[in-house]
Amino acid sequence: MSMLDAPRDRAAEERPAAGELLRFVALGDSLTEGVGDQVDGGWRGWAAVLARSLAPEGQEVEFTNLAHSGALTTELTTRQLPQALALRPQLAAVVVGGNDTLRAGFDIRRTALELDATMAELSGHGARLLTACLPDPGSLLRLPAPLARPLARRMRAVNTVVHALAARHRAVHLHVAELPWPAERRLLSVDRLHPSAEGHHLIARRFHDLLVQAGHPLGPPPASAPAEPPPGRAADLWWMATQGTRWLAARSTDLLPGLLALAASEAAARVRGASGRHDEQMAHAAAEALATPRLPRP
Fold it and tell me: For the stretch 174-196, what's the b/e string if a residue is b when 16 or more beta carbons lie within 10 angstroms of its beta carbon?
């Protein structure tokens, strides 16, 4: 029996005993990198907050954050996964996919294959997985409906894939998309796409709750709000004027032409009374992607 065919409860069997080291590795994009939760001039984020609450008394946590801003699912297998496997984690977070929906060349089949391969390798090597479905970026940014609808459709497809793969690989899965982002503005950072420090703490607490429910011995849960005060409006404006504008410019050159084409197609479909057809096509593509056999790793 191969590593990938091993029973998925191996992670529970290899759970560190008291006094041993728990290795936690986070893979993903800017959400997991910690954008929006600024501490001492850098990003902290939900994964780092959670790491501090993973160890019961007598146990230590070695946390490594491999996530980086702008990462696509294709970068999981080519860049982050080899580094993660070398660290031999017992717990691994795989939270990614939002950037895929913001690219002109979005391909749900490729997204599904990369996520499936990453999760299979990590779980096959004994790691318990943390996964999450993500909120729709169009609604967070309050984009006009012709632009928001195509993005929402893509995000639904990605979340459909993540839901199915979380079940396939027995991951601890958090419905981040269902947290009250639009209703509670304080949970979002100035860019409206990433959580604020309070939003990151909320994600960490929810993952902690799920791990406790799954029977993992943990330390006390993260605080309900960060001990550090949030950056003031001046710091928010400085971030938007420097990093934020670069982020928008980088994505505009790649995303905007394709997004405008999607919006034009959406408008034409609505005129013909066939707007539901695009939803059906994307849902069918997501189902086909999940049925596609996983590509073997070289």
Answer: bebbebebeeeeebbbbbebbbb
pTM comes to: 0.84
Confidence of residue 278 (pLDDT cuts 50, 70, 90): confident
pLDDT at 261: 73
Tokens of 257: 């032409």
Of 277, 244, 290, 256, give the one whose Cα is nearest residue 36. Answer: 244
In a 10 Å sphere around its CB, with 0-12 CB exposed, 13-18 middle and 19+ buried, how is residue 164 labelled? middle
* Interstrand relation of 38-39 and 21-28 (parallel, antiparallel or unpaired): unpaired
Judged by average pLDDT, the poorest of 50-54, 174-178, 220-224 is 220-224
In three state form, how does the secondary structure of the chain look?
Answer: CCHHHCCCCHHHHCCCCCCCEEEEEEEECHHHHCCCCEECCEECCHHHHHHCCCCCCCCEEEEEECCCCCCCCHHHHHHHHHHHHHCCCCEEEEECCHHHHCCCCCCHHHHHHHHHHHHHHHHHCCCEEEEEECCCHHHHHCCCHHHHHHHHHHHHHHHHHHHHHHHHCCCEEEEHHHCCCCCCHHHECCCCCCECHHHHHHHHHHHHHHHHHCCCCCCCCCCCCCCCCCCCHHHHHHHHHHHHHHHHHHHHHHHHHHHHHHHHHHHHHHHHCCHHHHHHHHHHHHHHHHHCCCCCCC
Residue in the structure block whose two tokens are 């990462």: 71
Q: Nearest-CA neighbor of 193 among 283, 131, 146, 255?
A: 255
